[in-house]
Amino acid sequence: MEAFKSYLLLLILLLGAVCNPALADDAKPRYVSGDGSDSGLCTNAFRPCRSLAYAVLKAGKFDPVLIAAGEYQVADLDHLVMLLSSNLKAGLDRISGYTTQDRERFVSTLSGVPLEYRNYFEARGFKVIVDTKGAAIAKSKLQHFQQKLSVTASNQTQTPCVSGRAGSYPCSNIDLLNHTNLASLGGGAASDIWGFVDLNTQREYVIIGLDRGAAVVDVTDPAAPEVIGTHSGRSSTWRDVKILQTWDTGASRWRAYAYVSTEASMGLTILDLSNLPNGFSEIRDTSDILTAHNVYLINADYAMGVPLNNSEPLLTVAGSNKRSGSYRLLSLQNPSAPQLLEYSSAGYMHDAASIKIRDSRQTSQCANAAAAESCWLLADFNEDTIDIWDLTLPQSPVRLSQTSYAGASYVHSGWWSEDGMLLFVQDELDEAYNGQNTAVRIFNMANLTQPQLLSTWRSDNRAIDHNGFVRGNRYYMSHYLEGLTVIDFSNPAAPQTSAYFDTFPASSATAFDGAWGVYPFLPSGTLAISDISGGLYLVKEAGTPNANGKFAFALNRLAGVEGDTVQVTVERQGGSLGAAQVAVEVQYLTANSADLTSNTETLSWSNGDSEPKNISLTLLEDGSDEGIEMLAVRLVKPSGARTTQPDIAFVAISDVAAVSELAPLTSEISTTRSRVMVPIKRKGSSQGDVSVSWQLSDSVAASPASGQIAWSDGDTSTKTLALNLAADTTAFELQLSDAENAEVHNSTVAITRSAATPSPSPVVTPTLEPGTAGVTGGSGSGGGAIGWLALFLASVSVLRGFRRKS
């Protein structure tokens, strides 16, 4: 009979595996039993682990920890934190394969539980024995923990980092600008985060993933961020976001789109952000993926979301339910309807990072780039190894190398240095599996076919590292219960911590809570952190003195006329110790390479030199009427010193003898909010002082009801009017008139306010993978309904024979 029970358990597990063929770090159950043994990874139901402490350390992020009958204990405060951040289910029957829960029959006793957490653990199936004497966790220590934890649930205002603290938050060289809690965002938990600067208005935004969707937040004033709205979706722990911004020639404006992936079986969601700052809309994408762990944008600038020069942006879907989670490339030629371009069958991809190189490696090591303008590399972080792909020809990818390292536990994510010579690698489980302090590995990528481990940065604790990104010679890393950590890799052989901000001051345990993501690319220098239980933190590095100095543009907005030479000044601020240099890159926006020539790509300073250096941009006269064209210049690849803000500057190019034109960004604005924002832009020419008056058709519809907007000579920024709507306002017009030194075009803006009831989302249907038909629940690796049924019938037949023999 025992043999029969064992076979029955095996059958249940086999059926479960077939029904869930694509397992990532979010779908591997860990098994615990009172008669188990603490060894291995706890993934075998026949050989469960013994203790909760061991099992939760072996579990990936929110992996189910399934607990059979036995006696268990909360050992200390760190153990309590780990259990609170784990996906626990107790009172399970081991014989049924942990599928039957009955806490009266299969008693999972948990002792040492503080009284405050009794209901929490009982709801997860435990029989709880309250620790009334505080033997496991001292009462004073628990109260201190709860006091610190309560801080993350409250909104906070701007607080500088002084003597290692910003209010209740431990910090170093990072100031708190604002904390917006989950309730204000409209969610119960946060996941990943991304952002961009809207090139129509120069306003900055972040999109933060939530358990029930995603929130769009205006962070232009980081001390007073404004939640524009929340996209509602199915409940999921995982959401990832990337943003593309493209120029709409017909409408003479930029349009932005956010791509949101989730494990919640709802495919890819597209948010049309073109109506910002007044709202956004949702486009439902009916692609052939049902779930995706991650989404990544290739060939894009990550501050503006624009396609890089001479490049086509590609959306990379990682860890989907197709083809065992291998990467899928989608064309974004139509940003609102991505089209499948290529798919891989190489195996599960968890995350990705790309880089464009144009050095000697392009011809000596890349497989497809010898005759191309550059070589596009994709780092594939696939749980076991780092795979480097040459994607110069996206439909003919070539894998250049496959690399692991000592102690690899879960190769999770990483990012390239700006020169493509270094690759940062983060392992999400090495702290738990190997009992070591946080590690970030830096690989030397001089040889793409044989990457070499150059150095390893380590923290002074075992908090788990998650995602990281490079800006200049700093690596900005979300560090779960340690918050945000900034690593200075000026000397990549000996990286050092340069700053941190702890968003979870209650603990530094090896657990999945705290900072999930960080977005470090906003031109203002605002750093946006998504915290699982805390919400959104906006912080900024403090102006700490640096003996080597910091590179920055003297001005972040410049203008010139075709035929002129514009001098862009770069300063070395605050120090001059040692030789230093920084590269300057031009990113074309509405301008292109035919509009200018540049005299330099790298600026150098000798030891003791702090004199400003100039870049000369010669604006070429082409005789065409093109209006104001824009480009951006960026400071990248610093050595000997670091970059600071502004490290992005915008240059406007006007036609010769052009006339200034003033016009609203759009002639119609619809909103559901009590405040409407009306952007007015300057077109045609940047020369001279100009102004325009405005007034409302209904003087009581909003306040203020009239006013004047002015631009100084060379100012091409968009001016945004903020109107507070009266309670009963539904529709009115704003009119431009009486322009000075300029012409008015499209002088009227029609403004309507409606109830906050979303209209049905438009549906787009992209190209599907051959042999598929829309969204399905199957996996690209096989194991659909037919495979499940075949195994089930075969198993029933074997089971009957087994029972006869018994």
Question: How would you describe the overall organization of this protein?
Answer:
There is one protein chain. The strands form 13 sheets. The chain has a six-stranded antiparallel beta sheet, with no helix packed on it. The protein starts with a helix and ends with a helix. Helix content is about 10%, strand content about 40%. It is globular and about 85 Å long. The longest helix is centred in the C-terminal third of the chain and has 21 residues, at about 785-805. The chain is mainly beta and about 800 residues long.
List keywords for this structure.
806 residues, mainly beta, Methylamine Dehydrogenase, Chain H, Immunoglobulin-like, 6-stranded antiparallel sheet, 5-stranded mixed sheet, 9 helices, 41% strand, disordered C terminus
Total helices: the number is 9
**Backbone structural class:** mainly beta
Provide mean pLDDT, rounded: 88
Low-confidence stretches: 1-26, 771-806
Multimeric organization: single chain
CATH fold topology of the largest domain: Methylamine Dehydrogenase, Chain H
Strand content: 35-45%
- What radius of gyration results from the CA coordinates? 28 Å
CATH architecture label name of the largest domain: 7 Propeller
